[in-house]
Design goal:
The chain has 10 helices and 10 strands. By secondary structure, it is of the alpha/beta class. The structure holds ligand T3D.
Length: 266
């Protein structure tokens, strides 16, 4: 039996998904892409999961699309060119949509290089924690492509147009400490403490009100193209829903009783 392309493990209410093609720096084949999406589906459907961690096996996080995959490798002379747009429609678009609609927070634990679609996969997660030796590369321009996997939408929003264009046009390696400094990621930590720091963060998030955390992501994303008035309306609407949910009652009751809250909504 061959090794699974996505390893899964669970500690408490935290599900860890590990991209597992270390010899090719966990670059995406169609199969690995589909398996990641189905593992995210499974985590989303499992009430025992309250936080997901995404990481990579070996020395890399993910080097983007596997460029040797026949699905994308340039055609031989005389054969019709590959339709990369279809690859994105079929694989990357649903993967990003799945990630950004998870009912629980998702942490990227970036253990090594994250390039191309691998970099943007990480940046689509709710919190990105990277080891000091990790790096982010918008490798697309080096092979004549534009940032995909949500990169065109994410990068200017995360770091502003000037830095987004600098990263995307030059395709240079950005170290984790600089990624934190410019606001591309949440945190850069020492290599030796990555697993421990991510676990601490994930265990903490897993005890928090998941429904409100997922709604925060959703309303932040929606507000990017709303006027202030529309954003205020969206806040009123979502707060109205959350205010009727169990977690709000529990949160306020726990505060009043000076005890730890036990949140259960998802
Ligand atoms: O195409 C479409 O469908 C559209 C979608 C595109 C999405 C994209 O992600 S486009 C961008 C694709 N990714 C890249 O262009 C990155 C390519 N990789 C690199 O530039 C370098 O590998 C890194 C900078 C990421 C790391 O460099 P380094 O020196 O640490 O490692 P390495 O020696 O280059 O790679 C180690 C092995 O992984 C090596 O295999 P080998 O020689 O030991 O057998 C290398 O070929 C393999 N590898 C790394 N990246 C990929 C890959 N194999 C296939 N595809 C890769 N993307």
């Amino acid at each position: 039996m061959s090794e699974p392309l996505i390893l899964t493990s669970q500690r408490g209410a935290v599900r860890t998904l590990t991209l597992n093609r270390p010899a090719a720096l966990n670059s995406f084949t169609a199969q690995m892409n589909e398996q990641l999406r189905s593992q995210l589906d499974a985590a989303a459907a499992d009430p025992e999961v309250r936080c997901v961690v995404l990481t990579g096996a070996g020395r890399g996080f993910c080097a983007g699309q596997d460029l040797a995959d026949p699905m994308v490798a340039p055609s031989a002379d005389g054969e019709p060119p590959k339709d990369l747009g279809q690859v994105i429609e079929r694989l990357y678009k649903p993967l990003v949509q799945r990630l950004r609609s998870m009912p629980v927070p998702v942490i990227a634990a970036v253990n090594g290089v994250a390039a191309g679609a691998g970099a943007n996969l990480a940046l689509n997660c709710d919190l990105v924690v990277a080891a000091q030796s990790a790096s982010f590369i918008q490798a697309f321009s080096k092979i004549g492509l534009i940032p995909d996997t949500g990169g065109t939408w994410l990068l200017p929003r995360l770091v502003g147009r000037a830095r987004a264009l600098g990263l995307a046009l030059l395709g240079d390696k950005l170290g984790a400490a600089d990624a934190e400094r410019i606001g591309l990621i949440w945190k850069c930590v020492a290599d030796a403490t990555l697993a421990e720091e991510v676990d601490k963060l994930a265990q903490k998030l897993s005890t928090m009100p998941a429904k409100a955390l997922a709604a925060t992501r959703e309303v932040f994303d929606a507000a990017q193209h709303l006027t202030l008035e529309q954003a205020l309306d969206a806040e009123a609407q979502v707060q109205g829903q959350l205010g009727r949910a169990h977690d709000y009652l529990e949160g306020v009751a726990a505060f009043s009783a000076k005890r730890a809250a036990v949140f259960t909504d998802r």
